[in-house]
Amino acid sequence: MSKQKAREVFSKKILERAKKDSSIFVVCSDSMGSAMIEDFAKELPEQFVEMGIAEQNAVTVASGLASLGKKVFVIGPASFYSTRAAEQIKVDVAYSNNNVKIMGISGGISYGNLGATHHSVQDIAFMRAVTNLDVLIPADGNQMGALVDLLLENENPTYVRIGRGEVDDIYDKSEVFKIGGSKVLRKGNDIAIFTCGQLVSRALALSDLLEVRGYSASVVDIYSVKPIDQGTIIDIAKKCGAALTIEEHSVFGGLGGAIAEILVQEYPIPMYIAGIPDEEIPNGTDLEVFDVIGLNQNELLEKALILIEKRL
Amino acid sequence: MIRKLDHELEKSLIIKSANVRLETVKRIHKVGAGHTGGDMSAADILIALYTYMNVNPENINSKTRDYFILSKGHSAEIYYEVLAEFGFFEKKRLDSLGKLGSEFGGHPTKNIPGVEANTGSLGHGLGIGVGIALGLKRDKMKNQVFVLTGDGELAEGSNWEAAMAANKFELDNLTLIIDRNYLQISGKSENVMPLEPLDKKMESFGFKVLKINGHDYREIFEALNSSFDGKPKAIIAETIKGYGIRDGEGIASWHHMVPNKEQVIQMEIDMKRIVEEINNV
């Protein structure tokens, strides 16, 4: 299984597309290196805008560019864009219906021991509550590549959260996605596992552990958190009778919250939300931290087994 | 688009201003809400701009039009009245102002013909203007971009981020006009958060700065007509909050004070006198 960095896939793909489409612009905020966008800046300087360390202004200027009909991708750390520039995303991008894609890189806790200033674990909660803003979270490099095509096909204001490190490929390059879609990666009957982003691989590993114990899990990648694939979520919930959500986001208001909002109104079943707890988390790499905050295989398995016992 | 102001045009704009301000105040009185003070201080700037700019009901979707962003979105009532006056929509449509479902809210949106940006939260307009001006430059277009901010609004740091960028990208197609009425909702802007020396601040951010009387059409036109290669332009337009309302001129609480019947009648008398005097000149 090969590994790729989603942000690297994005930068290569957007450069390839922008060479053939001069209306594609990339805006960054002294984030050229972390966004791996140096080649774009060098090869297409007329389509590249460096705004300095000023995320709010980067988003507003991007909106101005978009109002001229340009397809603008603002790329930089998810932590700063989703909080400091939150109002600009709400007002200048979403409310003003400008074709701006916010590419929040190094999302979740992927900055590791750089600490809470650099973590974005509230971004999904805010972004999915903003009217007229799509929210996408690719799980691997190939999905990221496919989403770039989708982002260029539609004009919807969008927030995309990308991780930092290399992640195992979940998908082939040929896999087809859609805004508002999801992917059922495993089909089982005993528990529904809804997940997204880099934790999809942990969800798949968990389903393997359950299989060893004689249980079959459905694993669904909710890469489009908004619009969300309500139909599939309800179908799988009905089939399984219990739901576990696994995400790299606060346990408040993220994917778990989105799934809970649907299920509690449409088909209430026992559910557990696994994510970043509402407390200060220790320094460490993201993978190390996952293991000590309840996102390790043993604890996830424990939660899954309890849910299976309680399933409807 | 008229770039040169002659005596006749000046007279007609003064009359237009008197009428537009009176209509706006009457409408605010009728609806019972509005940002009266800043509407009045911005009136002459808006009228001069829509006379000067290359934008009209026929070319609002053209790629060659000039762009205007009302960053001080709360001056919506006067903006609507000016847009209607310049033919962007029928004045009758403004009768829905303040009613449920009206397209004319307390802050402007792009749903209204002629409006280029959804504003209302302060400190966004200049950045939007920078984005548009930058895009036009990259496209080698000659259109001009105009942004009108309040003065109290300049306490928002986002303005200064945008100003830095205007300088970096040498946006000589961008004009920032500051409606400098020295007042904001809580009192004098110099007490709430001092801006002075505002001209030097703007200059140090790379702008070419012009300080004018924002109610004098000759000065406004002269400032609009001056251009400076490679530099964005800031026009500090000194104005009077509540301009034309006897009880309201220069009083901070008129930020969103609604004029009563007597005040409207007084303004009718005063505006009529202005028109008569101009016609007799």
Question: What can you tell me about this protein's structure?
Answer:
- Chain A is an alpha/beta fold.
- Chain A has 2 domains: 3-168, Rossmann fold (3-Layer(aba) Sandwich), CATH 3.40.50.970; 183-310, Rossmann fold, CATH 3.40.50.920.
- Chain A is 40% helix and 21% strand.
- Chain A is built from 12 helices and 14 strands.
- In chain A, the strands form 3 sheets. A 7-stranded mixed β-sheet of chain A has the order 3-2-4-5-7-6-12, sandwiched between helices. A 5-stranded mixed β-sheet of chain A has the order 9-11-10-13-14, sandwiched between helices.
- In chain A, helix 2 links the parallel strand 2 (24-28) and strand 3 (48-50).
- The radius of gyration of chain A is 19 Å and the shape is globular.
- With 281 residues, chain B is an alpha/beta fold.
- Chain B has a single domain (7-280), classed as Rossmann fold (3-Layer(aba) Sandwich).
- Chain B has 9 helices and 7 strands; from the N terminus they run H-H-E-H-H-E-H-E-E-E-H-H-E-H-E-H.
- Chain B has helices at residues 7-31, 36-52, 76-85, 125-138, 157-168, 189-192, 198-204, 217-225, 261-280, and strands spanning 67-70, 145-150, 174-180, 183-184, 187-188, 208-213, 233-238.
- In chain B, strand 2 (145-150), helix 5 and strand 3 (174-180) form a beta-alpha-beta unit.
- The longest helix of chain B is centred in the first third of the chain and has 25 residues, at 7-31.
- At the A-B interface, helix 3 and helix 5 of A face helix 4 and helix 5 of B.
